[in-house]
Structure formats: C-alpha cells, structure tokens
Amino acid sequence: MKPSPYQIAAFTHAARERSFTRAAERLDVTQSSITQHVAKLERIMGTQLFVRRRDGLELTRAGRQLFAMSDRLRTLEQLIEETVDSYSEISTGHISVIANAPCPAMPVIARYAALYPRVQIDFTLVSWTLAMQQLRERAADIAIVTQPDADDLLYSLPLATTRYRAYVCRSHPLAGRKRLSLRDLADQTVIVPEDGSLTQHLLHRKCAALGVTLSSLVKTTTFPLVKEAVLHGVGVGLLLDDSMFPSTNLVAIDVAEMRETYTNCLVTPADKRELRFVRSFIDVACEVLGV
Question: Any idea what DSSP says for residue 184?
Fold first, then answer.
C-alpha cells in the first residue's frame, strides 16, 4: 500500500511543529485527522515515526529519515504555490528562527515584525550545537549563528564579524584591567553558556593548550543568562561582542589567547532560500545590518 499525499502532509507538518494540534491548525483540519493520517502512515511503514512526550513530539530515527525527504517535498510545493500566486504580497504566515545569541537576531526580528505584522515568528535561543542540528534536521527555517559549519545543503550569508571578550561587573576586582590571560581566570568563577555552545568548545580547547585548569565554572542556558550572572557579580563571563545589548554596569576586557574573529551568519536549508518568508527575512536582515 502506498502512502497518500494527505498522510505525508500530516506527518510533515506534525514533524515541523512537533505537535499534532499545531499541525492541524496549519492545515486547517481537525487534530483527529492528523493523528489518523500519521497512524495509517506508521502502519504502512511498519514502524513508529514519533515518540509522544509531554512537551511535544519527538521524531524517531525512521521519522527523521522520512522528514528529511518529505520536508523538501513540502518546500518544493510551497515554491510552486508562490510561483502560481505570482509572489503576491506577504500576509499571514509562519516562520521559525533560532539563534545562539540575542544579537544580531533581535533587531532583524523587530524590523520584520513591523513590516509583516501578520506573520507569526517563533524565535528561540539555542546552543551552537543544537542550532546546527536543527538546521540539518530542518526543524528551523532560519538560524543566525556564529561560525556555522560548512555544508552544501545549507545557504549561509555572512552578517558581521565578532570576537570574544571577558566581561565583569564594574565592582569586580578585574574591572580595571585592559587585558588578561586565561591563566588569570584559573582561580576565578567563569560563567559560560550551556554544553554544546561554541564558547565552551573554544574555552576548553584554549585552556587545554595552555595547561590551564579552571577551578570554578558556572554553566547557564543562554548568553542573556551569562550577562545576568555577570551583572549580579557571580563571576567573569566569556561573551561574543555584540551578542547582547550593552549595559553601563558591564566592563569588557580583552583576552590575550582569544583574539580571533568569528563570523555571525544567517543560515537556512538551501532549498528554502527562495521561499517567500525566508527570502523576505534575508532581505530585512541585509537592510538592518547593512550587508
């Protein structure tokens, strides 16, 4: 028995949304219709496509393999629909955006929301590793991420260069320093984003090369929480320039061993680049950031 287009569409939207309810809303059908189509598809394939969890749906291995193909099919269908519609004015719609830091994503999102107020934007901060994973799994339309991996299946637009600095609050003993070494942080509390972040990866590599062991490491979930921890005097935060909005209570210090520059890029699956919502978001990013 062959799967029907309705079953593939139900599965693809459920996988995109990680929810039967939201998939039903996108397709303007009932939730029971979505669950029935997915259940029939699972019976045809003889395997489970989703693991049902309290916080949403999780794709199984078979589900990920199918979604990698079905989402490309849905993307092609969207391109055909937009061509037939002659690229009419953007009205309602939905776009998912992820980033590993608030800046430069937030100014772009603010401008996009002002231009297209009826487009729903889902924005989430994730680690660098998770951002690359979600792009490859097509779980996000757009990512604004630092130094993304090169991948022929991804379109990458460089936005701006950035570098790491150590940040402390103005009352911190190191606040008067213009430059420090990672060796100076051996007996300090160092604040970094979560496991999987580019920051942790680089810091551990640099410390290993120097033979430096950090005695106290505080891990947070995102760059904004690193900033808050620094402002509250928890310790020294390692942050990318322009990854957050400035504060008069923050002091930036150069790190001798972290002078390299990195590139913030807008990344999207290559075949989604010409989708109307994605293309318009890229245009707005270029306008806002002067690319």
Answer: G
What pLDDT digit, counting tens, does each position of 250-260 carry? 899 999 999 99
- Residue 8 burial (CB count, 10 A): 17
Say which amino acid occupies 61.
Answer: R
Q: Are 95 and 16 in contact (CB under 8 A)?
A: no
- What gap in Å lies between CA 172 and CA 251, rounded to an integer? 9
Q: Is-contact 133 64, C-beta < 8 A?
A: no
Q: Which amino acid is at 186?
A: A
Model pLDDT for residues 142-173, shown as the tens digit of each residue = 999 998 988 889 999 999 888 999 999 999 99
CATH of 160-261, one of 3.40.50.300, 3.30.70.100, 3.40.630.30, 3.40.190.290: 3.40.190.290
44: phi then psi, degrees, rounded to nearest 5: -60, -45
Q: Which residue has the tokens 């608030």?
A: 102
Chain Cα centroid distance, residue 20: 23
Q: 1-88 architecture in CATH?
A: Orthogonal Bundle (1.10)
The pTM score is: 0.69
